Amino acid sequence: xxxxxxxxxxxxxxxxxxxxxxFLMACGVLVLIVLxxxxxxxxxxxxxxxxxxxxxxxxxWDPNTGSFGALPFIFGTLVSSLLxxxxxxxxxxxxxxxxxxxxxxxLRQPLVFMIEMLSAIPSVIYGLWAIxxxxxxxxxxxxxxxxxxxxxxxxxxxxxHHEIPTPALLFSGPTGAGYSMLSGAIIIAVMILPIIxxxxxxxxxxxxxxxxxxxxxxxxxxxxxxxxxxxxxAKKGLFGAMILGLGRALGETMAxxxxxxxxxxxxxxxxxxxxxxxxxxxxEFAEATSDDYLHALVAIGLVLMAVTVVVNLCAQLxxxxxxxxxxxxR
Amino acid sequence: xxxxxxxxxxxxxxxxxxxxxxxxxxLTINGAGATFPNPxxxxxxxxxxxxxxxxxxNYQAIGSGGGQKQISExxxxxGASDGPMSDESLAKxxxxxxxxxPTVAGAVVITFNVTGVSNLKLDGPTIANIFLGKxxxxxxxxxxxxxKGVKLPDQDISVVHRSDGSGTSYIFTDYLSAxxxxxxxKVGKNTSVSWPAGLGAKGNEGVSGxxxxxPGSIGYVELIYALQNKLPYADVKNADGEYVxxxxxxxxxxxxxxxxxxxxxxxxxxxxxxxxxxxxxxxWLLVYAQQKDAAKGKKLVEFLKWAYxxxxxxxxxxxxxxxxxxxxxxxxxxxxxxxx
Lengths: 330, 340
Hints:
The complex is a heterodimer. Chain A has helices spanning 9-51, 54-57, 71-102, 105-118, 123-149, 181-205, 209-217, 222-251, 254-259, 277-284, 291-329, and strands at 61-62, 67-68, 156-159, 162-165. By secondary structure, chain A is mainly alpha-helical. Chain A has one domain: MetI-like fold (Orthogonal Bundle), CATH 1.10.3720. In chain A, helix 3 (71-102) runs antiparallel to helix 8 (222-251) and helix 6 (181-205) crosses helix 8. Chain B is of the alpha/beta class. In chain B, the strands form 2 sheets. In chain B, strands 1, 2, 3, 4, 6, 7, 8, 11 and 12 form a 9-stranded mixed sheet that branches. A 3-stranded mixed sheet of chain B has the order 5-9-10. In chain B, helix 2 (38-51) crosses helix 12, helix 5 crosses helix 7 (167-179) and helix 12 packs antiparallel against helix 13. The termini of chain B are far apart. In chain B, 49% of the residues are buried. The A-B interface holds A 60-65, 131-132, 135-136, 176-177, 179, 257-258, 261-264, 273, 275, 279, 282-290, 294 and B 35, 62-66, 68-69, 81-83, 85-86, 88-89, 158, 163-167, 170, 187-195, 198-202, 206, 209-210, 213-214, 217.
């Protein structure tokens, strides 16, 4: 390391330029987020002034009577995204473990290539595939099976004089042609699979080999090595990969719109149609003519941004709370 | 070698740029709005370049909402919309009085997927009740009474509607409001409404795809889409009590008998006349009565006159219903009053 004072003036100037350039670029990102927020707020302030909290808690969306409630959309976005994450995360992380720890070296590169290709497929193609291939399969085989097995369990159990609803409720009700919350979640899961896998793989690869060797040296089996030496070391990073995937899931629009059924209703059954924040904007923005209607759609955009921020903050919080534990294992 | 290629390419490009700008100062007229008439409008603008090479007309099919907004704020020279503007929005137009000029009409058809049924007859109240979720089975007496001799199955009706805001939904809900007081009070008409029953699918292709896959389903699509994709669709009972199949002619017939007010903001659903198909509507161009830019205004009026003279003839080849001559001459007369 050379002391900056001893550097030639030219390189010192270049250093300063470099530093300022990067600083400005970093600020640019911040400014962009603030501007987006500002524009969304500017376009939707009227709606919040008029409806107040009712905009978030109301469940009636009727452009004709001018009543706008975003709750079914918030519900749809959260349920479909979290469900998608629940489906995709185990798959993606297992795949990443296989790719870094278990797969024969000759197989790794082709597999990685194929997974990365999944993320290159446009959203609308996923949607078409879902409509023509996934939905018929789900509605004819998978959904009836779920309905007759899990859905047939008791829908509520008595506990302390209350009827406590059980998860069987999720798989009850008519399955129709498959346009449903569950189909939406499954297609999102497919779409966020590559990013979670790629990031997880990078994180697992960054686990030092020393870590693994030490565990093997203690006589650990392959599973024990993965669990103790690799996974606990990479826990934080893997969680981060999941959050990245969740961020993508929250904003996913086209393919979801094509399979979720676009009905603003809150229903416990995953077989019933739903609606997401991103979908309603994509669907209705182009033909929204009245001012209130337009403002309400911009407000939906602001809510979507807020939901994303809140979910990310929650994730940070969870990470912080579990931080001590991760450290202890290390 | 490579650099020389690059050099020639740049020279060629420069020549091209000079060639186009050098020929004549070209005037650009910008328009934006409805997506439904976009194929026809594109064809018009393309053909008009040969008629008057000094004008270039750009049209962006961004949707009726955007069209109304942009012409109100004068960011475009003309707008286009599938629904008429409300009095409230018209009052907000910054460039003064906005004219509605109807160009062509389109129809909405009821398409269905019922095993063993290829022809279906429906009247307005029945369609409204199906979409209200009141008639829920194909063997309902209301449907059976109109379809004697057709074997209707004992099957639940799945309703499919558009999820995206669209002129198609506007025409359809406008019709349902005209034939069913219940629909009018509970749902009303708009490009998007709060649907009491069924699932939403995106675009004509989304609706028809969902219907093809769901036995027992019913939905509505644009006539053009149904014709081009050979979908089955129902005969609908019109105001004169006749069951009419949707076609370009039965839509023009409805236009001829519809009552048209002086400002052309009219609804032609459920028009009288034996051969009129009841679920149809026109699409409009939105133009200021007083043009801000004299040169552009002059060219725009010239184009509009051409469109109604020669352009209307192209409508049928693209499956749009042209205006009947009586209406067309009234519109041309109105175009003559535009000042610039």
